[in-house]
Amino acid sequence: MLALLLIIPLALALPKSHESRHSHPKGWRPHTAPSPSHPLPLRIALTQSNLQLGASHLEVISNPDSPEYGHHWTPEKVAEFFAPSTESVSAVIAWLIEGGVEESRLELSKSKGWLSVHNATVQEAERLLSTTYSFYTHVSGASHLACSDYSLPPSVSPHVDFITPTIHYDFQLPPPSKRGLKREKRAKGMPPAAQLGLPDSASLPKMDLGGLFTIFDQLTHCADQITPDCLRAMYGIPPAGIRLSTSKNSLGVLEFAPQAYLPADLDIWFRKFLPWAVGSRPQFAGIDGGNLDPRSVGLQYNGESDLDLEYTMGFVWPLKPVLYQIGDSYLSGSFNNFLDAIDASYCTYLGGDDPTQDSIYPDTDNPDGYQGTNQCGAFQATKVMSVSYYTCVANVLPVTPMLTPSQYMKLGLQGVTLLFSTGDSGVASGYGVCSEDGQYSSTGTRFVPSFPATCPYVTGVGATQLPEGGSVFSKEVAVESKVYSSGGFSDIFALPSYQSKAVQSYYAKYAPPYTAAQYNNSQAVRGFPDISANGLNYVVAASGNFTLGSGTSAATPVVASIFTLINDERLAIGKGPVGFVNPALYANPWMLNDIISGNNPGCGTDGFAAVPGWDPVTGLGTPNYPAMLAYFLLH
């Protein structure tokens, strides 16, 4: 099959630099030269077609004022539209074979986006890429194989996005404040991007350690305890009950091992807040060995999943959410592992998933771990997805922000609403530390944006709270007790057109008092969050007891439930799902409750302030369900 693609003659020309690095990240230094025969897992990301056009198409079909609104694409159309051209595949294969690589060692991914060179060596890679590899060591003792630059023939370079491993320092280190807390799984080399669900992950909600002995039923206590009735009163959410389009509708909740809900916890919560749902369970979709590990018991293992499912099921019942349980009992799984499982056109494990970032299967290090291959396109994407997990851009492989956002764009084209929590540490990283020279530092002063909430094709969810001593009818403020709503500006992603007017207005009226040394103040980059919801003191049944949970990871499933309920009404009258909602929200901010008080401190500063209009603390504000429903039913 590959031979049929060899149709393009190569122009004889000297290689030109494709990527280069002029300095090493802080703490790294060259150490020794590798053996020429040292194995090197060479992976080539081929240039995708039509990415810029894809972004334009997404805005058109996501704008309710457009005649194309809601005309979502099929997975087949998406795969065909973005696949690297035959010309690109042919050019790269021909170059490799001309360079001495046997065709039998080449493997093209199903999406045609990745080309793997099996059994490559350092000597071979150095010859192909006109470079020199070295082992680099970190002050922590970590070692990494990389080069400072590499070159490609002019006839090949336009067809290649990037190649790994090369200049990218994809061996990331835990933040300094956490290195003493490594669990056995990390010591075994668990990839950093696949640490999302570990008990000390910054993604998890802040759970009160003591049990909750009194649960208030009156709405007058919502400033102290958030219950479903509090949220219904605050945002106008309808009661649980008859749904119009349950068979057509869907909501997905992502959980990463070892996080897992306890069935008994759901029933404890249902008996208090939704008694007719006792015994109800989510639809289970186990990805890459995902399971409800009975050995993982405790708030640090069950709190997140219990909270997510209790509140989504509490709002959308009798619709049963799909629980995407990702990773076996040893490897937590990553965002890429999830994307592999829901979209066969993305499935990059044949050359895209990176062993230093993503969980790779079979799990050969653990005999009782998942021994199958990464699941490729095994599950359908739900119409709405709630993701209460995040990482920081400093925590992921530099090439990841190039790839993952395009996949989120493709899901948006298919009508999927993606909601990601922004984090709970204000302008700092999830661990409360900041950045210095691109690395975590306890003395750093640069703000750390979260990911994927900064991606322009997802909806980032921040957190608010009722003011201390306030009632359910009090105007909310940015959350300032126990957690701080993460928000700010991306260091990577350009300002999307749908957000341009809001960000320009923010800078014109409320420009922050910080310099480019602290954040990207170019006024030309993506701001986050987009929307918020209450994130303080949710009543949660976890590990057999009631307690309180807080964070943007509590707000996200509430917002996801609201869009699921809106989809229910739309589907009942023959319309499609709302899909990517950001263009509609920014064009119609009146649908949301503006938050104008509070801030998100960190990095030795007060952070940003909540102000009238969009702000990098609470976004456009909190949901107004009746207004949102009326708008989305009209369009």
From TrEMBL:
InterPro entries: Peptidase_S8/S53_dom (IPR000209), Peptidase_S8/S53_dom_sf (IPR036852), S53_propep (IPR015366), Sedolisin_dom (IPR030400), Tripeptidyl-peptidase_I (IPR050819). It catalyses: Release of an N-terminal tripeptide from a polypeptide. It comes from the Eukaryota. It is found in: Secreted, Extracellular space. The keyword Calcium applies. GO terms for molecular function: metal ion binding; serine-type endopeptidase activity; tripeptidyl-peptidase activity. Keywords: Calcium, Hydrolase, Metal-binding, Protease, Serine protease, Zymogen. GO terms for cellular component: extracellular region. The keyword Ribosomal protein does not apply. Binds 1 Ca(2+) ion per subunit. Its EC number is 3.4.14.10. It is an enzyme of class 3 (hydrolase). The active site is at E304 (charge relay system), D308 (charge relay system), S553 (charge relay system). PANTHER family: PROTEASE S8 TRIPEPTIDYL PEPTIDASE I CLN2, SERINE PROTEASE AORO, PUTATIVE (AFU_ORTHOLOGUE AFUA_6G10250)-RELATED. This is tripeptidyl-peptidase II. It comes from Dacryopinax primogenitus (strain DJM 731).
